[in-house]
């Protein structure tokens, strides 16, 4: 493991969940808009891709 660095992030799950919640509330870093039946929804490509093989393929 020469040349490797190991980092530890205390309270990772809590911090990442809180960060996602803030991004969602503030619509921060929104990078895609989905439209259907005259309605629009903003979203994050990374979240859609992680949640759906369909969107993962669309965004590749």
TrEMBL record:
Record's keyword terms, sorted: Developmental protein, Differentiation, Neurogenesis, Nucleus, Transcription, Transcription regulation
Compartment list: Nucleus
Pfam families, sorted: BTB
Residue intervals of the BTB domain: 30-60
One CC-aspect GO term: nucleus
One example of a Gene Ontology biological process annotation: R3/R4 cell fate commitment
Reported function: Putative transcription factor required for axon growth and guidance in the central and peripheral nervous systems. Repels CNS axons away from the midline by promoting the expression of the midline repellent sli and its receptor robo.
The protein, known as: BTB domain-containing protein
């Amino acid at each position: 493991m020469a040349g490797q660095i190991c980092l530890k992030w205390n309270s990772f799950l809590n911090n990442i969940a809180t960060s996602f919640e803030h991004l969602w509330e503030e619509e921060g870093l929104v990078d895609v808009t989905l439209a259907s039946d005259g309605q629009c929804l903003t979203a994050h490509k990374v979240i859609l891709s992680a949640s759906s093989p369909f969107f993962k393929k669309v965004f590749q």
